[in-house]
Amino acid sequence: MKRRIGVAVLGLGWMGQAHSRSARRIPGHFPDRSYDPRLVVCADPVADRRRSALEDFGFERAVEDWRSAVEDPEVDAVWVTAPNMLHLEMIEAAAAAGKAIFSEKPIGGKPEHAVTALGHARAAGVATGVGYCYLWSPLVLHARDLIASGALGEITHYRGRFLSMYGSDPLGLLTWRFFVDQAGYGVTSDILSHSVAMARFLVGPVTEVVGMANTTIPRRPLPTGAASHYGLGAPDDPTGEVENEDFASMLCRFENGATGTFEVSRTVVGPESQNAFEVYGTKGSLIWNHERLNELQYYSVTDSPDSGYTTVYGGERFPFHGAFVPGKANSIGFEDLVTIQDHAFLEALATGTPFSPGFSEAVDVVSVQQALIDSWTSRGWQSVRDLTEVTP
Ligand SMILES: NC(=O)c1ccc[n+]([C@@H]2O[C@H](COP(=O)([O-])OP(=O)(O)OC[C@H]3O[C@@H](n4cnc5c(N)ncnc54)[C@H](O)[C@@H]3O)[C@@H](O)[C@H]2O)c1
């Protein structure tokens, strides 16, 4: 008998829709699951999105006020998919109502919000998950296993980057991501969070950092109505000021002694969604780039010293891939990663087993972000203070 898990989705934009589609697709991909997701209620202030939630996604209810969705007695788990600065109050209310919480990254817009959110979840004793969806890529899971098996030897260096073009056009709209009161920080909250989560997952904790930030496009056209962050304005549109960073870079040291470099940008031209890493060890190295998520480049000192990197294609031999398509080198995509992630979270809820990454791992990530932010003003190296220890 499968357990019915009632789901609420707060915010039906890009990621709210992606998680809603996941809930609908999960039964077809994971027939051996222990639960059945039920799309109980969605909350969004935009009437068209509420209509679509009912008609296209099959939600039972769609409401304007997210609090009534959180308090709905038929809801067991709440997905937080609204702009960053709404995360914390949604999480606080969901924890108070005793609901399991899956929040999109970065959990609030500033490091202290993730710390407070972890405190609320701990106090209420509710299960948590965070949307670092790229960690669920079958080839990233394989990379993690290869590194853990010692196949790369001792890890000496890590390069992480997330270079995106979503803000590269100066006519790109001034959406919530560019405002401090809606997004918090800029790329360090938005996409460095993914890069640091990935590095932590593969190589372990970061202990010290130094870095810089820059805002490269200071003004953008103001949107009218609900706008996607890929939308464009017109040259004569009124403009407003970008309030947070477009670019950040960071040097770091890991606890295991490895060095690291990170670069993130939303305004470069060329890389379209390049969430990528290179991991170097004494016996081999790995290269992965989300733009080619079904390929992993592997160099082994013992197996391929003369042939250079070998391309490993995704396939059912790697974790979760076979749930979507059989055989080898038949590709999966971004929303499949979201579906794997949501299935893993719901399965953990249904079986009462721990899930990672949750809010505690998100606080590990913002601990690094806080040290980076501190280095902007100190203009020197900063030790990473473990903020899970100061969580109330
Ligand atoms: N994991 C990933 O790869 C990934 C990708 C994109 C976004 N995100 C995260 O997802 C979150 C949402 O980003 P997005 O790109 O989907 O944004 P979006 O702008 O596409 O969608 C946000 C939605 O929230 C709604 N909203 C605004 N105020 C609300 C309120 N008071 N109550 C309920 N809904 C409200 C908006 O109307 C909109 O539909 C962010 O925290 C972002 O960091 C994660």
Automatic annotation (TrEMBL):
Domain GFO/IDH/MocA-like oxidoreductase as annotated: residue spans: 141-286
Gfo/Idh/MocA-like oxidoreductase N-terminal domain mapped to chain residues: 5-132
One annotated GO molecular function: oxidoreductase activity
Membrane-spanning ranges: none
Domain of life from the UniProt record: Bacteria
Keyword annotations: NAD, Oxidoreductase
A Pfam match: GFO_IDH_MocA
Identification of the protein by name: Gfo/Idh/MocA family oxidoreductase
